[in-house]
């Protein structure tokens, strides 16, 4: 937890804040220092960032504070990921909290890598494949299906309804309307059906 006054000057940091940023404690008394100065001082310790990347991040944070808009998640040099949330009081204080989301981010990265591998496997299958969840929203498909119905991956987005995908497929291929309707009816009713 850290608190800045109405002029964006540091007024308080709890013990956990200083454990996260021990170099700020080592710097000495930071009360009264402005947010941008402390942010630049912190970012200077991240050797992985170029000067241009540091400047861009500082500008994004300053813009977010000015606009009171959400801040993207951030990974610090030790590999920890934080969700930073700023709350603004009526008397001008900015109260910033940081939540360690490292485990969640690691799970997201693992899931993304797994999804990439699974999509590559699906795309090697020569037969068209499409999958909907129990509520008939699109969850997966392969390139062979895109080719069959002549829909792009932009038109086939996760979460699209079965009805929306079917309408687009029929619009693209009106001559196959009967077959496409039969296929999507089978998907909706979860019946086994063979297509040639």
Keywords:
196 residues, alpha+beta, 5-stranded antiparallel beta sheet, two-stranded antiparallel ribbon, 47% helix, elongated
Number of helices: 8
Structural class: alpha+beta
* Strand line-up across the major sheet: 2-1-5-4-3
Largest sheet features: 5 strands, antiparallel
- Note the overall shape: elongated
The tally of beta strands, per DSSP, is: 7
Amino-to-carboxy terminus distance: 63 Å
Low-pLDDT runs:
none
Strand percent estimate:
15-25%
Helical amount among residues, as a percent range? 40-55%
What's the rounded overall pLDDT mean?
Answer: 88
Which H/E pattern describes the elements?
EEHHHHEEEHEEHHH
Radius of gyration: 26 Å
């Amino acid at each position: 937890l850290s608190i800045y006054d109405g002029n964006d000057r540091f007024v308080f940091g709890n013990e956990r804040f200083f454990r996260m940023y021990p170099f700020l404690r080592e710097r000495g008394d930071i009360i009264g220092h402005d947010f941008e100065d402390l942010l630049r001082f912190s970012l200077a310790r991240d050797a992985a960032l170029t000067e241009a990347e540091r400047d861009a991040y500082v500008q994004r944070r300053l813009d977010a504070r000015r606009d009171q808009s959400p801040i993207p998640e951030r990974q610090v040099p030790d590999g920890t990921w934080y969700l930073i949330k700023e709350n603004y009081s009526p008397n001008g204080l900015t109260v910033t909290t940081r939540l360690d989301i490292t485990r969640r981010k690691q799970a997201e990265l693992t899931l993304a890598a797994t999804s990439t591998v699974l999509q590559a496997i699906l795309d090697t299958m020569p037969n068209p494949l499409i999958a909907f969840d129990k509520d008939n929203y699109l969850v997966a498909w392969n390139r062979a299906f895109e080719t069959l119905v002549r829909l792009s991956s932009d038109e086939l987005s996760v979460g699209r309804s079965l009805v929306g995908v079917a309408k687009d497929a029929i619009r693209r291929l009106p001559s196959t309307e009967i077959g496409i309707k039969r296929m999507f009816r089978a998907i909706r009713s979860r019946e086994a059906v063979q297509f040639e």
